[in-house]
């Protein structure tokens, strides 16, 4: 994969063994024409083959930013080895970013609404809405009417038994 037109992979080293059973997928890939197609499509990557007897096969991927990654190819067949090689050619060279928390999977719909294509390039209809304008005379009259209503509105009279309880009683001697 490229970032701003520049491939991030600098070199790929393919290490394998010429007689080990774990390297049979790599040896079969080198005998086939698939390796030539991968090398021809990625001419800006430096491919190296390293014969290391008695060791398991792996890919060593070196990136322009200095990051290197090794991918094991132990007991892989031709298809799996080819897939790992093309994946290594298309990597950027950064570690995976650890996101905060897990992805929420739910049967409930979002309260924000469902996403639709062309949703973000639409007109802002909420800003284009026409709201009726009231003349200032009507607003002032409505404010005066509210003040009159507030003056006329009184607290309801308390129940007569409450008045009796609130009054001060004097006790007479018998």
Structure explained in plain terms:
The structure is a single chain. The protein is elongated. The mean pLDDT is about 80. It starts with a strand and ends in an 8-residue tail after the last helix. About 10% of the residues are buried. α1 crosses α3. A hairpin with a 4-residue loop joins β5 and β6. It has about 170 residues and is an alpha+beta fold. It has a domain of about 90 residues: Glutaredoxin (3-Layer(aba) Sandwich). The protein has a 4-stranded mixed beta sheet with strand order 4-3-5-6, with helices on one face. It has a two-stranded antiparallel ribbon with strand order 1-2. It has 6 helices and 6 strands.
What is the general shape? elongated
Name the assembly state. single chain
- Cα distance spanning the termini: 110 Å
Q: Give the strand line-up of the largest sheet.
A: 4-3-5-6
At the fold tier of CATH, the topology name of the domain at 2-89 is Glutaredoxin
CATH class of the domain at 2-89: Alpha Beta
Counted beta strands: 6
Report the total helices: 6
Helix content: 25-40%
Describe the main β-sheet briefly: 4 strands, mixed
Q: Assign the CATH architecture of the domain at 2-89.
A: 3-Layer(aba) Sandwich
Percentage beta strand: 15-25%
